[in-house]
Structures are given as structure tokens and as C-alpha cells.
Amino acid sequence: MITTQQTSTQQKIIHYFEGAGLDYYYWDQAFNMHFGYYKAGMNPFNRPSLLNQMNQEVVNRLQLHQYFEPKVLDLGCGLGAASRYMAEENPEAQFLGFTITPWQVDFGNELSREQNFSDRVLLYQSDYADLPIADESAEAAFAMESACYARGRNKEDFIQELYRVLKPGGRFVINDGFRKHSGPLPRWLDKAYQKNLDCWALTELADVHAFVKMLRKVGFQNIKVEDTSWRVAPSFAHIPFVSLRFYLDIWRKGDLKNLDQERKNNVLAPIRGMLMGLSRRHFGYYIISGEK
């Protein structure tokens, strides 16, 4: 049953992404809407390669090679950039993306058509905690910095639905920011945290321990938890420069006075997020994987 509060929260998320969605082009021209992953030997100044490496790290952990023509679910898919990347090297796989934002569905499917992926990367409007697909119908699923939008500190609704739709032996990968505990934060940090929740239309980040406990409770096995905070740090360092470029471009176009709050929030939140990322006692970035 969908409550009035859930509906209000979803409308806030939709409003945010409809207002600020195109601005992610400043972050990545392919519309990857997540942070990158750094490996030794990579150029830390090449942001697209860092972002695509995160896509690669996720698909590596999905282990799609073990399935025949796998169906892969992209939960909270944004514009489907990660799925298109994965489809490039997995021609036998079909990717189904789900987002509650109608604009992302329309524009994401248009991008898939332009890049000749429309037969294998399809986006749908749906809540990922109530998917329009049958039980045990997918071999794999991933959520890239989107599980944070689910309800609660353990994201129970999201995890239960993830378990329902995966086939036995199916794998999942979740990469996201997490709280390391549910206790009180220092006052200055809590202020930054609460402001970021509002800017990004979030209710709360998951507690990593509660999240993993819920994964185990519903029945997931072979769960691997990787703290990759330092791996994503180089891409975090790009935030001030991307923000400055955004504001300079808007200023040159004469649109600075007309900049709405969603677009301002989309720029300011990552800067505050850097403060949260430096607070290693309280926050971390994790890649969590496992199987049913």
C-alpha cells in the first residue's frame, strides 16, 4: 500500500530530477550519474574513464558470463548510461531499467535508440520497490547510487523486492554512499548531512550494517562488502571544478538569475558531500555484492 508520505517523497524526487537532470551533462556527456572508480595506473584527471571504470567494476561483480542470455535489472537507472555501457560488452544480455521519473524514461530510451541499443536497453517508469515483473525473472540486478532513495535505514522494501525478482543463483551489486552507524553525528556534520538529504531529495542514507543484516535476513548469500571510499575519492575531487564550470557557463548565457533551486541544489550538494566523505568515522562508499 502506497502511503501519502511515500507519494510526496516520490514527487519530490521526480521534481528534482526533472529540474536538474540535464545538468548531469556537465559531469559526464554520456550521462553517467554516479562517482568513478580509480585503479592504479589510471589518469585521475580523466573523469569519463573513472566513471566507466565504476560501470566495469559493477558488471565484473555481476559475473554475467555465467548466464545464458541474462536479463539484467538496472534499479534506479537514471538515463540508462550504465546499462548501455554494459550492453556494449555483453551483447547477449538484455537490460531493463526502472525509474519513477517519466522524463528519464523518455530521454533515456531516446539515447538508447540513438546509440543502437533500443532492442537491448529498455527503460520503464516504475518504483523499484514494486516492480512490474514476475517472481524469479532476472539473472542479475544492480543499483548504482540509487538504493539510497529507498525507505528506511535498512532499505527493507528495496531489498525484499530485489530478492523476489532474482532467480535462484542470481547476483546483485549495489554501490552507494552509506552511514557507518545510526548514532548521532557531530552537530556541524549533521547539519551538512540534513541539508544534503534535502538537496538530493533523499530521506536518509542506509546504515551499512543494518543494510547488510537485512540482505542476510531475506536470504541472500555470499555477501561481499567492500569499502571503496578511497577508490572513489579521485572522482570526488572533480566536484569543485565541475561546479565552477557549470556556474561560469550559466553566467555566460545570462541565466544565472533564472537558476531554479533544484539546479542550485544539484551543484551545492556534492560540495557538501565532500565534507561527508572526509568524515570517515561516519560515512563511507561501498560496493556490496551477493547472490540469491
Record field, number of beta strands: 7
Distance between the termini: 26 Å
Q: Per the principal axes of the C-alpha atoms, what is the gross shape?
A: globular
CATH architecture classification: 3-Layer(aba) Sandwich
Helix-strand topology string: HHEHEHEEHEHHEHHHE
Report the major sheet: 7 strands, mixed
Query: Structural class given helices, strands, pairing?
Result: alpha/beta
Poorly predicted parts? none
- What number of structural domains do the residues give? 1
Within the CATH hierarchy, at the fold level, what is the topology? Rossmann fold
CATH H level, superfamily name? Vaccinia Virus protein VP39
Report helical residue fraction.
Answer: 40-55%
| Widest beta sheet: strand line-up | 3-2-1-4-5-7-6
Helix count equals 10
Query: Average pLDDT value?
Result: 92
CATH class: Alpha Beta
Gyration radius, in Å: 18 Å
How much β-strand is present in the residues?
15-25%
Q: Topology, pairings included?
A:
Layout: H1 4-20, H2 47-62, E1 71-75, H3 81-89, E2 94-99, H4 102-114, E3 121-125, E4 138-144, H5 156-165, E5 166-179, H6 187-199, H7 208-218, E6 221-227, H8 229-236, H9 239-252, H10 261-278, E7 283-291
Parallel strand pairs: 1-2, 1-4, 2-3, 4-5
Antiparallel strand pairs: 5-7, 6-7
Helix pairs in contact: 1-10, 2-3, 5-7, 6-10, 9-10
